[in-house]
Specification:
Distance between the termini: 52 Å
Oligomer: single chain
Helix content: 25-40%
Order of helices and strands: HEHEHEHEHHHEHEHEHEH
Number of strands: 8
Radius of gyration: 20 Å
Strand order of the largest sheet: 2-1-3-4
Largest sheet: 4 strands, parallel
Strand content: 5-15%
Number of helices: 11
Amino acid sequence: MNVRRRNISGIAVTAAAALGLGTLSACSGDSAAAGNTDKFDVVASFYPMQYLAEQIGGDHVNVTTLTEPGQEPHDLELSAKQTAQMGEADAVLYLKSLQPAVDEAVGQSDVKTKIDAATLTKLEDHGNVEHDHGHDHGGEEHAAEEHSEEAHSGEAHSEEEEEHALDPHVWLDPVKYAEIAEGVASAFEKADPDNAADYRKNADALTKKLADLNTAFEDGLANTDTKVFFTNHAAFGYLAERYGLTQEAINGLDPESEPSPARIKELQDEAKADGVTTVFYETLVSDKTAKTLAKDAGLKTDVLDPLEGITEKSKGDDYIAVMESNLKALEAALGAK
């Protein structure tokens, strides 16, 4: 689609493939990412953005991802070749503040269509959990007055403040994810008007799936023995808020951070007070701390997947399937009726 890409050398294509950028979506056929010029070429920053691009773009898009399966997206570092490859795309789809290396590359890139998912819905402050472990609560703990318009305004924060204060894990709320999907569809329609009708049709089908998923979560979590769940890192603030739950994270927004002994003691006490049965861990980071806490507190462990990537360890092969597995895990842990 992008005429500049017709002049890319075979060497560049090979290099991109070696970096993982040659990985195509199922709808993209067998041709190399950099050489497939008959489609709308989209670079996605990590799996939730890749899924949106594939679902909305359908047969008209060629999707590559900057984050390989099994790679922790927060830690992504881009090579010069990957940055150059981004510049050859028709569009880049990313979530500002989640991956600083991607933010920097997008800012330096001349790609025509830059789609920041963070601008397509409202990011929220779920407590400065990266520096204040243990105060990332859902629902009841966040009164509306804490979320003034100024608190969510890009102009009101420096980039550093925004990275720490606003929770980027918005895709784990099906309602907000659907809002992002609508914005992505509009951007695709504008950038590739010849296929706008199909993008709209595909987006409508996706938002219907997400609406059904939201209904399943609402019904499944409406009546439970406890509303509190423990997680490895604070990825589930939006999900907790949406369904009236309280997330207690061992670590903060950074999955690699280590909790203090005082935090571990606090969680052990809360498990007894709130009837917590399970400590959830995830597939892309170490489960050592979660399993140690569970053992010391006499709790079970299970996987609650933040869907930052799909691997052979994932309980499902796409976003919807993994979220359905997450729901089953939460129903079991919370004692759903």
